[in-house]
Every structure is written in structure tokens, then in C-alpha cells.
């Protein structure tokens, strides 16, 4: 297992009226973050909030190319990114104990925080397709280049780790400075992760390690 | 953080404890227990709240030190508000250290304020002041600032530093308004009343009149001979004779001072100091002995001379004698003074605060209850006492609500 310190390349926020960030996603242009009663889109170049949608947003956030998915209480809402309308909802697999959310390969991937699990879920029905065990509280989930990464928080420490999707084995780990929280994780598809800063109410960009084999 | 926990925490912060309960009512994981505890506290069920918070502290994992410490602080605050003073102080101090270590300075300060309020309540003013000073002045949310100034004002009032008390209360009022918590604004208001309500009675030359705290403070610089019934001391400026351990001598001194410049008959002295209805020869003999002892004690301050029918006091180096007494003197004035804060007290907490036995306090409370001066609620160990004119139970809880945001 490779282990190194996370390299924080940029911090966004804090933002007016935002107490805590609960989920993060990226739509190719904007970084979206969930802050309780709204989803906000920031321009990663300027760091300015471009628009926001008033919708219950208590945990993970994901984007499938057209829709935003947002966990609120014990369900996952499917939101039209253009209009901000909630199109449908499915039950969240953790019954409200859900944290991170990602979209990949036609499935939703949902972190179940204290159960230390990641569920693969059918986005239409909410059916659990399979479950991956982690070792830590799961705070955010993302897929990039066939790699499954998730954020953790336990005992005042956070890291971003790549795990084997079959076995749950930790393959690589990026440690954040002590007391720095990852709440919500998303890759930009290239060399950055965006992570929520929990009760700091900010969003951080962390460098994704380059792999020589790629 | 988890979805439902976030939703419940937000409901709590928005002042909707029922909404919070709705979301976590059936869950028994650590954060849910903590949220349920805080919601129950806000709904006024302090006993249930305490149990839930204790379970939450146990349920948080060994590595979730901050969450656990915040539960301990919340439980301590509930104990303070319900006047459960036997609550383990060490656990609170440990929680405060943990919060400090992990950079949660606001909640660490909150823990310190709870410690200081407890010390103030049980009359350990020096320790309360040290605790408050030890907290330094980290940047705090307005509600916490208000509490800090309230504690500072409480210390100043006990120290008879009226001007400091008023200044601290002024700052507390501003902070409470900023925090926008009506209960807190009201608490500062009632603290202000203390400064405008007679704190003592002055008896001099057979007359008496009420004194405000500020006037009591000014009295400290008076050149008169003062018989102070609060501290059981006879003093003139820097010279003080303590009679705290000699109640009979103090009673005699007070009787002589109240009558001054007139004398007091032997019968009155015997009745007043020995609580004897009929004076016989043995009482007269005892009076001679006790007056002799008092004469020796008071030598630096006053002379005691025999008159035809009794004794008279003659002060040295001053032409005034004043008696400083409680505003209302009755048998259980000290018990009533504690209950006058309008909070529910347990008899064991009162015993701790008064430094007497639980039995003595219980007898006093029973007697006061018979004359409707106090009322009780609850049974057994949960029984609480308070003075009648208080509507409901003011809680004044400022629980560390961001219990679950980390």
C-alpha cells in the first residue's frame, strides 16, 4: 500500500451562509457542493458561486452527465441539473445513515458512514447490487479511470484512499493534515480531487497522484 | 456526515427539537443518541437527556474523542442546570482538556464556564475566578461571551465589586442581544436586578434601612465600627475580629451594637444570646464569663462597661457603630438565599453549597415547606426544591450543539 500526505492545491470558500459542506460533485464545468438546504455550483477557476438550487442536501452528491443526485434524509433525489427540479427519489441504502455518493458505470455508489460500507445501487429502483466493506467511516465516494476512491473520517483524522472494488483492500492512501475533514469526494477526471471541508464550510482541491503505468 | 444526522442536527439548530427527534427517534447509534439527548434537553426532560447523552458518550468509538467530550460537556451543563452538584467534576475537566487539544476552543471555553459556574454556585469564588482567568480570551460566539461575562459579574457581586459587576453585566447584555437568545437576555436582566435590590439592612442607633449592594461596598471604607452578620465579624477599617466560631459571643456583640449608644439589660442579653426564657443565677454567672471573653476579643475595637442593669459598648477611635444584617432575617435565611436564584435545587446540592449536613437542610426545607415558603417536585433522589414564585423551570442551556459536524 502506498501512503503519502495529501497535497492540497487550492481551497474554495468559506461561502456566505454555508455552515458545513456535506457532499461534492463535478459536472465538467462547475464543482457542486451540498450545504444542508441548497446545492451550489462554483467555478473552479474563479472560486465564485455561479448558481445554486434550493433543495434538501444533507449528504453525498453525484452527477451522471445530465442529472444531479443528492442524498436528503433517508432518500436519494434525482435532480434535473438544468431546471433544479426533483424528478424522482429512491430510498437510500443506509436508511439515512448514508454519506458519500458517486456515479459510475450506470450505478450509484453510496457510502454508509458508520457501517463503513459502500453500496452499489440501481439508480432507478434503489436496489442494492453489491456491498464493499471498508475499514473506516466512509464520507465520500468517487470513481476515476476505473479506480474506486473514498474519503474517510475517524478519530479526528481524514484520508482519501483507493480501494480494491472486489476485496475492499486499501491500495493507496493520501493523508490529510490532522483535524482536516473530507466530507464529500469527487474527481475531475484528471489530476484533481474535490473534497468537502465539513464544518469548515469550504471545498478543497487535492492533487491526484500520477501513475507511471498509465 | 450522515444524511439523517445532518438533517436532524439542522432541525435542532433551527429550534425544532421535535423535527430532530422525528429523524433519529428509532436509531441507537452514537450520534443519534447524542442528538436525541440534546433534543430532550431542549424539550425540558433533563433526566432523559442526561441518560441519552451518557449512552452517546459510551457509544462513540475510542477514537471519536471530540464527540465524546462534547457529550460529557452537555451532560455537565444539564447537571448544573438541574442543580445536581455532585456530578463528577474530573470528567468535565478531562473533556475540557480534550477539546482544547483538538482545537475546539469554543466548546473548551464552554466547559470552563460550566466549571466556573458550578464553583461560583457552591461559593468557591476564588477557584471560580481562577478557572475563568485560566480560559484566556479566545474568540467566542456571542452566547458564550454572555455566559463568560455573567460568571464574571457573579464573581464581582460576591466580592462586593459593584462597578465591575455592572460593567460585566453591560457586556453580557450586549452579547446576549447579539446571540438573540431570549432566555439569555432574560437571565442577564434578572442578574441586573440583584444590583438594584436591597442586599442588606443597616441597623444604627435603633433605626434601620435597606442597603443596595453598592452601598454595602461603600460601607467597607466607612470609619464606623461594623458588626457584620454576613461574615460574623466585628471590624473597623483594617482591624477585624472574627467570631465565626463563637456564636454566643457574636450574638452578644450584635445585641450591644444594635442598642448602642444605650445599654442592654442582663435579661435581654441572656434571652438573646442563650435563648433562655427566664434568667436565673447560673445564667447571670455565665453571662459574666462570656462578656469577659468578648471584652478580651474586642479589646482593639471597643470597650464593654457594666451599667446598673446590664452592659454597654464603647467603641474606640470612632463615634459610630453599625450593624450589617441580611435583608430579611428568618431562621432559614441561608437556605432561602440559595433558593432565591429561581432554580430547582436538590437537598444534597443545598447541603453541599451551605456546607452543612443533608439532614439539617432537609429539616429546614420541611419546615419552610410547611409555611409555603418553598415547594418541591419529584421524588426520592430526583426531588427538587425551589421558591414558589418561579414560573416553569428556566433552563438556560447552551449545549454544544455542533456535536456532530466534525
Automatic annotation (TrEMBL), chain A:
Q: Which InterPro entries match?
A: Host-pathogen_enzymatic-act, PQQ_rpt_dom, WD40/YVTN_repeat-like_dom_sf
> This protein's superkingdom?
Bacteria
Species lineage, top-down? Answer: Bacteria, Pseudomonadati, Pseudomonadota, Alphaproteobacteria, Hyphomicrobiales
Protein name, entry field: Glutamine cyclotransferase
Q: SUPFAM superfamilies, per this entry?
A: Calcium-dependent phosphotriesterase (SSF63829)
Residue span, Pyrrolo-quinoline quinone repeat domain: 73-173
TrEMBL record, chain B:
Q: What is this protein called?
A: Helix-turn-helix domain-containing protein
Spell out the InterPro entries in the cross-references: WH-like_DNA-bd_sf (IPR036388), WH_DNA-bd_sf (IPR036390)
UniProt cross-references to Gene3D superfamilies, sorted A to Z: Winged helix-like DNA-binding domain superfamily/Winged helix DNA-binding domain
Amino acid at each position: 500500500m502506498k501512503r503519502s500526505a495529501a497535497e492540497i492545491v487550492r481551497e474554495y470558500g468559506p461561502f456566505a451562509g454555508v455552515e458545513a459542506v456535506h457532499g461534492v460533485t463535478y459536472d465538467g464545468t462547475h464543482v457542486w457542493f451540498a450545504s444542508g438546504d441548497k446545492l451550489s455550483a462554483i467555478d473552479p477557476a474563479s472560486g465564485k458561486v455561479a448558481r445554486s438550487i434550493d433543495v434538501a442536501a444533507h449528504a453525498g452528491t453525484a452527477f451522471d452527465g445530465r442529472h444531479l443526485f443528492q442524498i436528503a434524509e433517508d432518500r436519494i433525489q434525482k435532480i434535473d441539473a438544468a431546471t433544479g427540479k426533483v424528478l424522482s427519489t429512491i430510498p437510500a441504502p443506509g436508511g439515512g445513515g448514508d454519506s458519500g455518493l458517486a456515479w459510475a458505470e450506470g450505478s450509484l455508489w453510496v457510502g454508509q458512514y458508520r457501517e463503513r460500507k459502500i453500496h452499489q445501487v440501481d439508480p432507478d429502483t434503489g436496489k442494492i447490487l453489491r456491498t464493499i466493506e471498508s475499514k473506516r467511516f466512509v464520507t465520500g465516494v468517487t470513481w476515476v479511470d476505473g479506480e474506486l476512491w473514498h474519503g474517510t473520517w475517524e478519530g479526528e483524522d481524514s484520508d482519501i484512499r483507493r480501494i480494491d472494488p472486489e476485496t475492499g483492500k486499501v491500495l493507496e492512501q493520501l493523508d490529510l493534515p490532522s483535524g482536516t475533514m473530507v466530507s464529500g469526494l469527487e474527481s475531475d477526471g484528471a489530476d484533481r480531487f474535490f473534497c468537502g471541508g465539513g464544518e469548515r464550510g469550504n471545498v478543497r482541491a487535492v492533487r491526484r497522484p500520477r501513475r507511471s503505468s498509465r | 456526515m450522515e444524511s439523517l444526522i445532518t438533517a436532524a442536527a439542522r432541525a435542532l439548530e433551527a429550534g425544532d427539537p421535535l423535527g430532530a427527534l422525528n429523524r433519529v427517534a428509532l436509531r441507537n447509534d452514537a450520534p443519534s443518541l447524542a442528538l436525541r439527548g440534546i433534543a430532550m434537553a431542549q424539550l425540558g426532560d433533563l433526566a432523559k437527556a442526561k441518560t441519552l447523552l451518557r449512552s452517546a458518550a459510551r457509544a462513540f468509538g475510542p477514537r471519536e474523542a471530540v464527540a465524546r467530550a462534547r457529550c460529557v460537556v452537555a451532560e455537565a451543563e444539564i447537571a448544573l442546570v438541574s442543580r445536581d452538584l455532585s456530578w463528577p467534576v474530573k470528567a468535565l475537566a478531562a473533556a475540557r482538556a480534550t477539546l482544547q487539544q483538538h482545537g475546539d476552543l469554543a466548546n473548551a471555553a464552554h466547559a470552563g464556564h460550566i466549571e466556573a459556574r458550578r464553583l461560583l454556585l457552591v461559593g468557591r469564588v476564588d477557584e471560580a475566578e481562577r478557572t475563568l482567568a485560566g480560559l484566556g480570551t479566545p474568540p467566542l460566539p456571542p452566547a458564550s461571551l454572555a455566559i463568560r461575562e455573567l460568571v464574571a459579574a457573579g464573581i464581582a457581586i460576591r466580592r462586593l465589586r459593584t462597578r465591575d459587576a455592572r460593567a460585566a453585566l453591560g457586556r453580557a447584555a450586549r452579547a446576549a442581544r447579539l446571540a438573540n437568545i431570549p432566555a439569555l437576555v432574560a437571565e442577564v436582566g434578572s442578574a441586573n436586578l440583584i444590583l438594584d435590590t436591597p442586599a442588606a439592612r443597616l441597623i444604627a442607633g435603633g433605626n434601620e434601612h435597606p442597603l443596595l449592594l453598592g452601598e454595602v461596598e461603600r460601607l467597607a471604607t466607612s470609619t464606623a465600627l461594623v458588626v457584620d452578620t454576613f461574615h460574623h465579624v466585628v471590624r473597623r477599617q483594617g482591624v477585624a475580629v472574627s467570631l465565626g466560631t463563637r456564636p454566643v459571643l457574636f450574638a452578644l456583640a450584635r445585641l450591644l451594637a444594635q442598642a448602642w449608644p444605650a445599654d442592654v439589660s442582663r435579661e435581654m442579653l441572656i434571652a438573646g444570646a442563650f435563648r433562655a426564657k427566664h434568667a436565673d443565677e447560673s445564667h447571670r454567672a455565665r453571662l459574666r464569663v462570656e462578656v469577659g471573653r468578648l471584652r478580651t476579643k474586642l479589646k482593639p475595637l471597643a470597650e464593654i462597661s457594666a451599667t446598673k442593669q446590664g452592659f454597654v459598648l464603647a467603641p474606640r477611635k470612632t463615634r459610630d457603630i453599625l450593624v450589617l444584617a441580611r435583608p430579611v432575617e428568618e431562621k432559614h435565611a441561608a437556605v432561602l438565599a440559595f433558593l432565591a436564584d429561581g432554580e430547582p435545587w436538590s437537598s444534597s446540592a443545598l447541603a453541599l453549597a451551605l456546607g452543612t449536613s443533608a439532614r439539617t437542610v432537609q429539616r429546614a426545607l420541611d419546615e419552610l415547606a410547611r409555611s409555603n415558603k418553598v415547594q418541591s417536585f419529584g421524588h426520592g433522589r430526583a426531588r427538587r426544591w425551589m421558591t414558589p414564585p418561579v414560573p416553569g423551570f428556566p433552563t438556560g442551556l447552551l449545549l454544544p450543539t455542533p456535536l456532530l459536524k466534525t
